[in-house]
Amino acid sequence: MKTSDTIFEVSRRGQLEAWLRLILDDRDFTLTDLAADAGARRYFRIKPSGEDSLVVMDAPVAHNDNQQFAFVANLLASHGLHVPKVSHANLKDGFLLLSDLGDETYLKVLNNENADKLFDDATTALIKLQSITELDLLSRYNAGLMSEELALFDNWYIQQHLNITLEENAQSSLNNVLKLITERCMSQPTVLTHRDYMPRNLMVCEENPGILDFQDARIGPISYDVISLFKDAFISWEEEQVLDWTIRYWEKARKASLPVPEDFGSFYEDVEWMGLQRHLKVLGIFSRLKHRDGKNHYILDAPRFLTYARNVAMRYNALKPLLLILDQIEGKTRQFGHTF
Q1: How far apart are CA 152 and CA 160, in angstroms?
Q2: In what helix (H) or strand (E) does residue 273 lie, and over which residues does it extend?
């Protein structure tokens, strides 16, 4: 099992502090632990004596592409997006000193009273991000990667977490559905995609929002970040509210001449299929975090993702085989709803 103890050797703390003393010219500072994330990174808040606080990212090079982080940070900042500024970088050892965007994530503060305003800010920033055209140095979110991600649902959630082996016919049906989901998502127009544009990675700032965790950005389907924002891993909203916010995003996207379908119904179908890919993938990732990495709390949100997936599968005839598999692994009786 790979845990934070094996990723972050004890000696790294001393190595990090020595680097900080060097770049701060031996000025006094305090270092406070911040929350880790699901990846192989950890964060500290540093307060140099008499100066504003900064954030230190400790990202071991064996597990992180820190050059990519710095590149994407500079790309987004150059287009007016509010991201942490990289003031110093030790790419050899995996230490980066960043500007501090504070502690208030969208996830902490979102409620029914402020959601419209916060999501309006978030979709305005998203339109700006998706309008970036200097993408030559970014990889594509291609069918191979998307298929690998969907395989996590079977390999880690069904087989490892639930300890279920599907019968041959059910396995074949699942494989066919996962292939269909990939094909449907890959048919969408592409833009710069953050790939984790969710409330946990957005900060409430004066220049709102601050955007974090962008290092995995690729050229990908235009609906990906939209569904990530509104159908999140850690907070759920009524379907009617999600529909309303998605319409508002779609109207902004059309005004910005982004490649969304002219018909909103077609776009919302794209959003739902893309969301299904993401939610099945995340079920696999959260299972892997528990069983491989010893991070047990993420999988507690599995029911949220199963609900997301079930609601979409019920609406499309082509996804009925997936609905049957969800019934089997959850031990539920199927319910019927409107389909397309």
Answers
A1: 10
A2: helix 264-291
Owner of token pair 């019968």: 167
Joined together, the tokens standing for residue 93 give: 């050892």
Pull the structure tokens for residue 111.
Answer: 């409620």
Reduced to 3 states (helix: H, G, I; strand: E, B; else coil), residue 95 is: strand
Question: Is pLDDT at 4 greater than 60 in this prediction?
Answer: no
Largest CA distance in the chain: 67
Q: Around 30, how many Cα atoms within 13 Å sit in the side-chain half-sphere?
A: 9
Residue at 206: amino acid letter: E
| Domain covering 106-330, topology | Aminoglycoside 3'-phosphotransferase; Chain: A, domain 2 (3.90.1200)
Closest to 198 in 3D by CA, of 79, 106, 288: 106
Q: Which amino acid is at 143?
A: A
Q: Read off the pLDDT band of 11 (50, 70, 90).
A: confident
Residues 219-256: tens digit of each pLDDT: 999 999 999 999 987 889 999 999 999 999 999 999 99
- Whole-angstrom distance, CA of residue 299 vs CA of residue 290: 7
Token digits for 323? 């609905």
Instruction: Write down the pTM of the prediction.
Output: 0.91
Superfamily (CATH) of domain 4-99: Phosphorylase Kinase; domain 1 (3.30.200.20)
Beta-carbon count within 10 A of 257 CB: 8
